[in-house]
Structures are given as C-alpha cells and as structure tokens.
User: Fold this.
Amino acid sequence: NAGVMQNPRHLVRRRGQEARLRCSPVKGHSHVYWYRQLPEEGLKFMVYLQKENIIDESGMPKERFSAEFPKEGPSILRIQQVVRGDSAAYFCASSATDRGSYNEQFFGPGTRLTVL
Amino acid sequence: EDKVVQSPLSLVVHEGDTVTLNCSYEVTNFRSLLWYKQEKKAPTFLFMLTSSGIEKKSGRLSSILDKKELFSILNITATQTGDSAVYLCAVGSGGTSYGKLTFGQGTILTVHP
Assistant:
C-alpha cells in the first residue's frame, strides 16, 4: 500500500541551476497538490493539479516556477534559475476523486531543496 | 484572504498530562478542517472534521469543530514522549478550487518523560 512518493528526498543546487521535484500520488488518486514549507514557517499552498490540468496555481510565484501532472508519470514541480530564497521543504499531497475527499490529503515525505 | 491561527505556538508538558490545542479560522467557502501531526518528515493525517459538535476520537486523541464560533480543538490525554511533534491545523475551502488547504503555523508540543 504505497503512499505518496517524492524524489529526490534531498536536492542541492547552486544559484542559477534548475531543480526538478517529482511526486507520485497514492495509487488511484488523480489530484495532486504542492506545498512549500520555509524554515520556521507553516505549509503554504502552491498549486493544485489534476491529470493534464492545472486547477489552481494561485500560490505559485509568477516567475521561474512551473508544475505539471501528465497523463502518464509523476507530477513535476520545476524551479528554474534557483535562488537562495527557494531553499525549503517541498511537499506533495494527493487526494481521491470523490468530491467529498478533495480536502482529505495525504502527504509525501517531502523534498528538501538547498540552494548554495 | 483565508486565515488559520493556532495557539499556543509551543507547549511543554510532562508525560501523563492532558493538552488542548486550539485552531481558529476565517475562510470563504469552508468545507472541512483537518489536523495533522508532523515529526521530522511528512505531515501525518489525524482527523478531518466537517460537522459541528461531533467529536472524532482515535485512541488518546480527540477533536471537535465549532462552525458557529469558527474554531476547533485537538485534545491529547495521557501524553507520551512519542506525542512530541508539530501539530498542524488546516482548513479546506471550496469554490473553484476544492482542494486547497490553508495551514496554520502549527503548535510545537514537547512531552518530557
């Protein structure tokens, strides 16, 4: 019974490089959410995706950040030209298709991004 | 803007004590309130509450929601050192984005032997 999987668990990048974070939802879940947790802060919503669609990206920074959830394969959060302020833990969550379950989200272990 | 506030921000108790964690919220299109436990890894789901006044229990943990006063409490009885963690409250809102969760800043609970 695999839960949400994320990889890599730890990622180190130098300023200006690209970071790609991957998330595989719980089997049978087609809704994926990305959250960011900055040091000493709570979890902040970034984006909500269904297969091949972005439903809500109101929490995504306007530049350098993008997300996708293709028909096949994991969801990807991509950060271009990383800066030190992007250092954080990035969590992915998934939920089932039943509308009553949208908010019942199960979280992955997170990817800890460090920008040098 | 949706807002979730937890109190206290941190709490130190001894094993066997009972603790109450608070969560108040202001959101549009409220759908549900969730509690998570976060140790040094993924937040672990505890409860989801949608109806006022109905207590949810799981072992030594229980939670209740008051939709009129816009708050929830999480109780932990007979605390153990393994209960030490950050407890997160989140509110799910509806509208065009059914899935979005707005989190509070968390309560850091430390249980000493």
User: Anything to note?
Assistant: Chain A has no helices and eleven strands. Chain A has a mean pLDDT of 91.
